[in-house]
Amino acid sequence: MLTQALINGLLLGGLYGVAAVGFSIVWGVMGIVNLAHGSFIMLGAYVAYFAFSELGIDPFMAIPAAMLLLFMMGYALQVVCLNRVMRTNPMLSLSLTFGLDLVLINVAMLLFTTDFRLVNTAYSGQALRFMDATVPYDRLATFSIAVLLAGLFFWFLRHTRPGYAILATALDRQTVPLMGINPSRVYALTAGLGAALAGGAGCLASMVFPISPTMGISFLGSAFVVTILGGVGSVEGAVIGGLLYGLVQSFASYFLGVSYQEVVAFSVFLAILVLRPQGLLGRQFYG
Q1: pLDDT in tens, 38-90
Q2: φ, ψ of residue 159 in degrees (nearest 5)
């Protein structure tokens, strides 16, 4: 069953990775720890659920709609609120995103109740056999799409003009205006893309986890740990950190029991934080 633990860890780690990419890039570019990121994931999961339950649309096919909706929400949040406060005390940005997180959770409770909801497609429960392990089709597809989304975002940052602007702003926020780059627009684009990735991650999470208004809380904690492990602002670091986090959880559950998986995972997180504070692939961002 060791092979099963390895496969489970990798499949779960891919989801953790894409859930952390948007969180990591927003933190790296703007220096903002977006505490509403978990709620964005939760909203993406509800988009997938209602697209499936009300319209009969496969949750994977709902990813573009969820990403577009969350992009507009993240973009608007940055333009209307965060751009106004991020030049002042950083605690204001932290407090603002924390308040938004509480608002989104409570609005979701009012609209959707606190009942757990599940997405059960025609292929849910079906799996293929690999050696002595079982690989569910839905989790394999979730992993594949998660890696694809992270890869596309990595390509976007390094092969498009908006991507170059985001990277340049992350490296030196004071100099980029001299190069004709408007930091406020870059921040809004970054926030929108981070939220869009969260929405995509939410759709994928709907295939693996029960959906509820508070599901984003655990994802926020995972995104924070994965970001520190991989390095703030690093897309590839977030993916590697997610895979590492998923493997540590899976092997801890296999060898020690489910109750120990979080303890061991956070112990690894603390060790990385002490030994290599910038993370595995992190770079020094400055402003």
Answers
A1: 999 999 999 999 999 999 999 999 999 999 999 999 999 999 888 888 777 77
A2: -135, 10
Whether 12 maps to a domain, the answer reads yes
Backbone torsions φ then ψ of 130, nearest 5 degrees: -130, 110
Is 257 within the bounds of a domain? yes
**Domain assignment of residue 58, yes or no:** yes
**Contact, 66 vs 203, CB < 8 A?**
yes
The contacts of residue 131 (CB under 8 Å, 6+ apart) are 3
CATH value at residue 238: 1.10.3470
pLDDT digits (tens, 9 = 90+) for 246-287: 998 888 888 888 777 778 877 877 887 777 776 766 654 433
Residues spanned by the domain of 40: 2-110+136-275
CB neighbours (10 Å) of residue 247?
Answer: 19
Give how far Cα 3 sits from Cα of 105, 185, 269, Å.
37, 47, 24
Q: How many CA atoms lie within 13 A of 40 on its CB side?
A: 33
For the chain, how many structural domains are there in total?
1
Q: What is the pLDDT of residues 118-138, one digit of tens each?
A: 998 888 878 888 777 788 888
